[in-house]
Structure formats: C-alpha cells, structure tokens
Amino acid sequence: MSQDSSSAAGPARFRPPGPLGCGGAPLGNLFAPVSDDEAASVLEAAWDAGVRHYDTAPFYGFGLSERRVGNALRGRARGDYTLSTKVGRLLDPAEGPVARERFSYVDALPFDPRFDYGADAARRSIEASLERLGLDRIDIVYIHDVGEDTHGSEWTGRLDEAMDGAAVALTRLREEGVIRGWGLGVNRVAPCLAALDRSDPDVMLLAGRYTLLDNEDALETLLPRCLERGVAIVVGGPYNSGLLAGADTFDYARAAPDLVARRDAMRAICARHGVDLRAAALQFCAAHPAVAAVIPGARTADEMRTNARLMAVSIPFAVWGELKLAELIPPGAPVPLPRGL
Fold it and tell me: Which residue of the set 54, 81, 86, 117 is catalytic?
C-alpha cells in the first residue's frame, strides 16, 4: 500500500493512553528472576499510580510476562486499560531440559521461541497470547523485532515476510474489530519507516531510539512522518537500558566513554537545577507530539512508583535551554513546559 492510499481519510486511529505506561520485559525475568509476588506488586503499584497502559510479549520469559500481566489485570474492568502484546515469534514446547538462562531471560517458562512473521502465525500467536493472559481481547499488536539488530543483513527479507504476512492479518483483525490497532515493536528506525511506506499501521513501539542520548534519526525522519500520518509513537527503553538511570550500560552492553561523558554532562546540568536526570529522560521522550506514551520497565514496586513520580515532577525550562546550548540535545527537539504552565 502506498503512503498516499494508507493516509486516506477514515476512522480516527487508536492512540494508546499515556504519558506513562508499564513495560513488561522485566516481568519475564529479563537478566534476573522476579518472583510472582514481586511482579504482582509492580503491576499493582502501576495501577495505583494511574497507569492504564501495559505492554508485554510472548518473548518476555517465553510466556511468563504475559501470564503475570494477565493475572494482574484479569480482575480489572476491561475497558479501563490498554493492553499490547506482540507477534513474530511462536512458542514451541521445549524438548528436554532447558538452560536456566536463555536469550537473557532467567528461569523462563519451558518453551522455545521460533520466528514466524506469516499471517497464520500471527493469528496463532494472538490466540496463544489470549490463553496465557486469560483475557478476552488485546488492544494493540506489534510485529516484534523485525530490524537489523535482530536479523542482521537478512532483516529486509524478514520485513518483507512481515509486511506480506502478519501486517495483512493484523490489518484485517483491526477492520473486524478484534484488535484496536497494530504496528511494529522494534529497536531501530528503519523498519518503521519501511512499514509506513508499505502498510497502514496505527502505532509504533520504538525502543531506545528517541531518548536524551539517541534521538536525531527519529526526530528528523520517523516522528514527522508519524505526525503526518496520525500514527502514534510509544517509546520503550527511555533510559537506554540503564545509562540514563545511573548504570554503565547502553543498549544492554557496556557504554562507550563518549556516551558516559554525555550522560554525565546532562546529569550535571540537571543537578544544578535540582532535577533528577531520570525525570528529564522520561519527560523528554513524552514531550514530542507524536509520542503517546513512554513505557519504562520496572522489576520492583519501588521502581514503578519512582517512574510515576519522575514523570510528574516539574522541570525548570532552563534545564532544556542549557542542554540545547551545550549541544546535548538537538535545538529543535520539543521539550516539556514546567508543570502548571
């Protein structure tokens, strides 16, 4: 489908609620185990903080995150929250014993993930997700990990499979009212741009590519296109896997010295104004008009409550001016106004 035909007038696109959502990867035991009780407390803290946007995926703990999210939401009125999950991997029962850690998930469920971006696989994946969730519907479905970071030089072929398969199936499910919207859930800008050219998505979950530390590509290309098309952006990974939250990792690897230096310069500017850099990281992402929500993950209830507090604090406008003057963020990047203005 061409860009012109896919942007034709029609029903308003579904825009997920924000500004803060809850990312479900840590609840699948990403890097370290989280108990069922702690996962439940994270999701309860999110609800108590007013969060009504929850994201998960079959890949997160090979069904574990979906099971935990479903357990927490099942007693809530279904119209009171938005739920997203993903397709692109099917879960096959593991044959024999499994390693304790697989694909960075620890003590996951005994399934093996298998890539399949076909239309039938997308429908089967949604059916399996509904069973694990124990819920009657999913609002948003993302086609998961169809970028170069996952598939290397074969990513364009995988995108072809997704556009000819899963995207067609999800468009039909949206037209039938089974889901409210669909898009890509990826860590790169390029597949999102390609999908906009070739299909009619409603929302893109972009992780780590519109942050204080990594934003120019998305700001110059993807976000303007999404504004033109009415396609919402959901920002995942707003802390770039920890560097903006005080750790030394960027995209799940040790951060390069230049990135650490930029982070430290940002943190010094924020500190002069009594601002937590994490608050600036969250609120910067949310300030762009194309962005509907920011969905950091949390593995404890305290982390979830902290994210909610940081999203709500007022940041002096001078902070953003100094960050731009120091060329730490682009001069044209939208920034939030202080609370109350």
Answer: 86
Task: Choose, from 60, 105, 117, 239, the residue flagged as catalytic.
Answer: 60
Active-site residue, 86 included:
yes
> Would you tell me how many other CB atoms lie within 10 Å of the CB of residue 128?
18
In sequence order, the β-bridge partners of residue 297 are 23
pLDDT in tens, 40-54: 999 999 999 999 999
Whether 55 sits among the annotated catalytic residues: the reply is yes
- Concatenate the DSSP letters of all residues of 154-187 into one string: GHHHHHHHHHHTHHHHHHHHHHTTS-SEEEEEES
60 is catalytic: yes
Q: Are 50 and 308 in contact (CB under 8 A)?
A: yes
Please state the pTM of the whole predicted model. 0.95
Kindly state the tokens that stand for 310.
Answer: 């940081």
CA 322 to chain centre: 28
- Examine the pLDDT at 8 and tell me if it is beyond 70: no
Q: Which two tokens stand for residue 184?
A: 């890509």
Separation between Cα atoms, residue 2 and residue 199, nearest integer Å: 7
